[in-house]
Amino acid sequence: MASTRRKFLQGSLAGIVTAVIPLSAFRFLSPDQARAAVGEADTRWVFLVDTHKCVGCGLCVAACKRENEIPYEVPVTRTWVERYVVTKDGATHIDSPLGGRDGFVSERVAGQEIDPASISKAFFVPKLCNQCENPACVQVCPVGATYQTRDGVVLVDRSWCIGCGYCIMACPYGVRFFHPVHKVAEKCNFCYHRISQGLTTACVQACPFGARRIGNLKDQDDPVTQTIMTTRVAVLKDEYGTKPQVFYIGLDNEVR
Amino acid sequence: MAEEMVVHGLEWTTKELFVYPNEFIYWSIQIVMYPYMTGLVAGAFVLSSLYHVFGQQDLKELARFSLVFSLALLPVAALPLLLHLQQPLRAANPLLTPHFTSAIAAFGIVFSTYGMIVISEIWFVYRRFIVEQATALTGQTGVATTMKRALYRTLTLGAYDLSETALTKDKKAVKLLAGIGIPVACFLHGYAGFIFGSVKANALWMSPLMPVIFIMSAVVSGIALCMLTYIVIMKWHQFRQRSSHADAATAIGGAELEVINKAARYLLGFLVAAISLELLDLIFRGYTAMKSWDILRSVMYGKDFVNIFVLQYGLGNLVPFFLLLLPRRTIGKTVVALLLVLYGVFMMRWNVVIGGQAFSLSFAGYMHYHLPIIPHNLETYREGLLGALTVAVMPFILFWGINRILPSLRYR
Amino acid sequence: MKNHVWRPLWVALGIVALILLLRQFMAPADFGIHGRNFTYGFHRLSNIDEWRTMPVKYQGKAGCLECHEEQAVAATASRHRDIQCENCHGPALAHPDNPALLPIDRGRDLCLRCHALLPYPTSLRGALKGIEPATHYPEALCSECHNPHKPDQEAP
To answer: What is the pTM of this model?
Structure first.
């Protein structure tokens, strides 16, 4: 009797296994299916930063935090502005208090007094997510909670992220952090809710000096595309092979 | 905002010079514990396999013990991850939608595969015992006994055959599983090394040697922990014997000493391999002196010098190396050496995980880690000293529990 | 399969089958490859729309013009014309329905973002008119002397 029951159990188990494995084993790994669904997108969002124009007012940071509901008082931020002061003795002084949220109103850099006469060059560099063509952060997400959209923006699925922090570790630019309230990975997404409906990003809109611009690289008539094509531009940390898509005018060797 | 607001990492990170605003020590003590615990699992298993697969008869006594210990360590290897996750309730997501380009996605799969291999192997090793227990308990009454009988009966999986052929088959199965288990154990741990080694953004972690270094140090720590626990249990048993019969043996017997000596030899071998690889990595970084070397050097030879060269290499590797190698080794010296080896491997994990975040991605600043000692909220418990101690104590509790069902030490 | 040796394997396969079965129910139905490949485009499709429908807080100058033509036009004619109304007046999201929700920031800090003197030769900042905040009427609000909508007027 025991042996028939055992046989029954084995049989039904085998049945379940054969029924379930093929279904699920192939469902999430079918590149053909995916390729069929993917047409060539007509948009590739890119960003252009002119560091000559940035005055370090930080209005972009303040606007970003409010627009994207990042708690205002905490140090983490989707975008930030760095100040570089290079003195004649060759030293570089860098700071970004609160990500530049309140602007730069003091001549002191990182608490250090700098004699104006000793400055050889000084400038501000706004930073944000580079929306890389090959985003290292996406590659390492274990659950597919962060991904690149067809128009090139990297988003985070707040309801699926497990909060392991691997993407934060993988980003060479330090743009990612844990959202203090939602407790999931958080990052700049070029104000995806705004650009999807024809608006510009909150930081671009807030910048009074035109230091920040966003455009569509696939549109040859887009002024941002035109500038990128006809001006000498550079990207940050290209040695990581991530192919960043935030282009900078007036980038310096000292910029980290 | 009604919800609690915590900037992860702010609590235990201090910054020096220029660090990007979003940078904090996001991977803290639990991520030190995670490779440490998986390392112990893998090491314990490899030790037991040395007997089962390669027929190292001298390790027979330790083999069964370390196999069960490996099972006790197994769930604890996943515990630090659970304590670390910001969304622990979503811990099953990697199994639901695995994104296999991530090293972490494989964790659930490798981990459960390995778990099943260990449990199966234990089942074969203990099958005879389980059947005997189930049979012996038949007909007895009492709630505890009934439950115990039900447990053993379930554990038999209906296989009551204890004939000579059946037992031979069991042995064969054990050998096969132990054989499969070695690469899987190495994979489980090597891939923990891969998780770090493949992070190209981190100058300290990125190295193809990382998985191999992790495996070697894993085996070292696993063997050390098994030997240590073995010695402690033997001593304790002796103590109990002595208090019950005054005339019993007064020192660890020759047989046990032999086991310890043999295991120590394997330990030394793996220790040499681990140190060589780590030094190769270090020399290579210095010689090639890539862009990141300036900041790496300032961390390794400056800020973390004591942690790396004094505590890890010196106290954790060199001292036990000589303690184990020099003649006139006593049990006392061995215990000290083993404790130091365990400490050394822990410091290695610490220096990789915390050391890898000691400098900014900007290469222009540093971060310092302050382990939360006294917790004042969930976060500082989970990722603080108490959380780490919870993890450290758990395998011993589990081992005690498993031993009540499957005794892994036969006392003479 | 009379051999007892296979029993743990059956149990193991049972567990695997159970996990795979659970996946069918617990993984979101629209999870799949929706981008360029598995590496970069594996996700839950509906999440894109969740992001798209997030509320827009900063409405832009055009919206302000509808009710506040006088101020907006004055500001547009001045050197402050490139500054968004919402930079000083706050995001307008709920303002048209509930005007009280827009506190005006009259603090010195706001003006100092640009007009604290920083002598930076290679940055536009060095070319902006600036003051020394510690010595230039430190107790006063800027708007007591300057009109931010008409910055070209000299202080009285």
So the answer is: 0.90
